[in-house]
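Human: If only I could read backbone structure tokens as easily as an amino acid sequence. Take your time, and here it is.
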Amino acid sequence: MPDPHSLLPPLPQLDAGSVWLVGAGPGDPGLLTRLAVHALASCDVVVHDALIDPVVLTLAGDAERIDIGKRGGRASPSQETVSALLIEQARAGRRVCRLKGGDPFVFGRGPDEALALAEANITFRVVPGISAGLAGPAYAGVPLTVGGPVGAVALISGQGPGGGLPQGLDLAALAKGAPTLVLFMAMRVLPEITARLLAAGRDPAEPAVVVRHATWASQRRLLTTLGRLAEDVAAAGLSSPAVVVIGPTAGLAERLDWFRPDADPT
């Protein structure tokens, strides 16, 4: 049998003086894309977020690793500092892999970094990753759409620049317009979110699922309802990083519970 890689088209080259904004996916190294693995193997320096599996970083070999991840209680560089670092490394002639959790362009600062690189005339490429908003529900047994009942899915950030809900977020409109809601970075503001959704007419009995550390061996899953969501999360002691799914398809989680972290070789 021929080598499977030989059947695929050749990969682009990570050139000296350029930056690739690479999505590392939700956590499980098996969910890395082929292009992401190639970027790690080709780079001179990897500038990475906090929530990256150490196994993934080993794929960068002897490349320099610069941890700029944001963690609670620890000072972290500003976005301007991170963008300046990428530009500095590229102008030094290095091949730069900017490794970001999930997808670089989904609720992250990838667009800010891409704009800074473009303004500095630095060649860059975006390497999409599997977002936790897609993989988390899948690993919890929650399809985001099912045939006819779900015609829209809303991806919602629970955190704006100031730490609270983003200004201008119209939860009432989303409550009426999207049967399935996927919440990112929302654990601290769940009481406010659930209150607004209930006030907008969502059924307190509709299913909700919380997935913490999605796709990791430490994944935890909580099945509840919208009306009990904030209370049950507090009682279970769940915290970030987590994804929350609210809507009819969350009710399938018990029947589609397939992921067994203890039995998974990854």
